[in-house]
Amino acid sequence: MLTVTPIPISIDIADVEINGTILKRKATLFTMTYNQSAKYLVLNWSVSFFADSLGFYGRSLSEIIPSYSHESIADNNTFVNPATGQILIADSTGHYSINYMGQYDWFNMMAETQPLQIHDMIRQYGMLVTNWEK
Fold this sequence. Notes:
Helix content is 16%, strand content 41%. It has two helices and seven strands; from the N terminus they run βββββββαα. The model has no long low-confidence stretch (mean pLDDT 94).
């Protein structure tokens, strides 16, 4: 029997400062729901804290600071650049300066038409998340 060691989907996210102490954080994928009927993709992440060791990840602080869950949702209420998947922000009149499409439709198009490394795609999507608070 072939044995493969699973590689967790994990990304480094922005540090936080609490009472002058810098804490490093990582987000690790917990679950993914790809609902084609409702047209959304939900990624549930577990966010963990680590000591800052001169800008590098030190020891886990899980015994002191519990991890928490964070949900990111890709649906068609968010619009993206069809060529790159980059999230677009409307101008002051509510318009976009380029052609756009719904974020779920973009993920669906990519999954249908491109040879993908899914774990890399999930990591890239996670890196676009700007708010990692509870």
